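Extended Data, panel c. Modelled sequence:
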Amino acid sequence: MPGSEGPAGSRIHNSLPLRRASLMQEPVLVLNATYEPINVTAVRRAMVLMLKGVAQAEELHNAEVHSSAHAHRVPSVIRLLAYRHIPQQSRALSRKNILLRDRNTCQFCGQVFPGSELTLDHVIPRSRGGRSSWENLVACCYSCNNSKGDRTPEEVGFKLARRPRPFTLHTSRQLMRLIGHRDERWRKYLFY
């Protein structure tokens, strides 16, 4: 909103219909120095990296962030200026990451739910030796979870929508692509 005050006296001028708070949380694609996509971060973090001289903007939004002395266009894609070695990526096993991997979709009935209406289900129940691992946990709605109970999907007549797998670099790129569908500027960096 033109002329609106933000934290530390910054002002936001925005020709997009985004509010200031949501603008600073918009996703920004982060590229390595070699233009390889390595992460998605928020506008706020991307602006900090640019101001520190660690990254430069490759693609820009129409929105601007104003300080008392300068106006900066908001980035959509940034590139690190120095190459960062990215070790084999693994993600922590958590409810949030399981729901992200399964795209908030019950793996038994296939319906999409808000995260608050989903639970995690052990495909092989813990009472039968099932572990809490990427390969044994899936997102599940409460109705399917109650129907399945302490049994395997086969015993109940359920079929998994897709076999559970750990997060991999491929999975992370798929998530970047999903987020990137909202921003056409990302497409040329995601190797569709």
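The CA atoms of residues 84 and 105 lie 34 Å apart. This feature is highlighted in the accompanying rendering.
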